[in-house]
Design brief:
Elements lengths: L1 H24 L4 E7 L4 H14 L3 E7 L5 H10 L5 E6 L1 H9 L17 H4 L2 H9 L5 E9 L1 E4 L11 H10 L4 E2 L7 H14 L11 H11 L5 E2 L2 H10 L4 E4 L1 H10 L7 E3 L6 E9 L6 H14 L2 H4 L24 H10 L2 H9 L2 E2 L4 H14 L4 E2 L1
Parallel strand pairs: 1-2, 1-3, 6-8, 7-12, 10-11
Antiparallel strand pairs: 3-10, 4-10, 5-8, 5-9
Helix pairs in contact: 4-16, 11-14
Amino acid sequence: MKRFTWLSVLLVLVVVFSLFAVCQGASKPIALQIIDVAGSKQMVGEAVDAFAAQNPNVKIDYVIGTAPELPAKIKAQQMAGNVETCVVFTGYDAMGSGFVQRIWERILPERKKYFGNLDKDYLPAAKAAFDLFEGYGVVFAWCPGGPMFTYNPDKVKTVPKTAAELLEWCKANPGKFMYARPANSGPGRAFLQGLPYILGDKNPKDPKTWDKTWAYLKELDQYIDYYPSGTGITFREMGEGTRYMLASHLGWDMNQRILGTIPASSQAFFLDKTTWVNDSHFACMPKGLDKEHKEQALKLIGWLLKPKMQAYNYDNGYFYPGPAIKNVPITMAPADKQTKIKAAMRKYLDDAITKYPSTTQLDAEALTTACDMWDKLVGAKIKK
């Protein structure tokens, strides 16, 4: 009888442990929600898929959003004590506004183990962008940016060389030049932040001193039909023939020719006294995540900085060149992307990368101020 009792107990224990093991193995996947307000999926979508393949316990939920709406969305989650968004991909817009509103968790230097030695690995311009936000966002993509101008050579026979000539061209061709609202457009922000260098304002890093820039944009406003809420609309209207010239950006110019949104014959130009206002994409992590989701979010962000994953950033030229870290040549990119980029590249664009000086975009508070001032002083004709 005793023996039977011990055998029964042993069998029960075996069953219990077996059920425990099965339950552990069948645990729910971790949902990792990514909100992308920068169009980053074009570049990093394959890298994110590769992360998911390497981590079958992680279920990726990829959401597309807009930068102006994002901080309020994150704050609402935080106030409700239910932060669902784990990672945000953004440009300077939501990176800056979220930084000012303190909705991002500081990632570095506290969590260096996920990122190696970024001081050594980053390209200098990417490191400068990273430094602006004190470790609250990780730069994973870089582009020289703008300001530059894309135009239809069949419609624009005399290409402006100076800001004054651009204004004269717009006066002679009302409604044919366009740029998007800076608060939600990389090319729009590059144009806004680049003008103080071109026009010789007192302090290009302080929008409150941009007397020449604000006066110029108000005069230019007379010849502009409206300001779209996103860059894509400007290129679409140029492709349709409604606009002849756009405030542009190196990556957008390349990408839209590769995709066929605008004719492959489209060309670009730069104004005298141009300074590149570099562009970057950032990965941020909202405050309020639990330990498990935080761990997976950090692993994903670190994954995007691996050289093989960085090579995906070449994409279809959307953020040309794209990689934020050193030693990721285009030869590491997928062969089909190499072919498309090489066909779209123009020597004068590659030369311009080194010909003109470059600078970072404004810091968070100054950029927020600049976009707010543009909205109040210029942007009465914003249209979605």
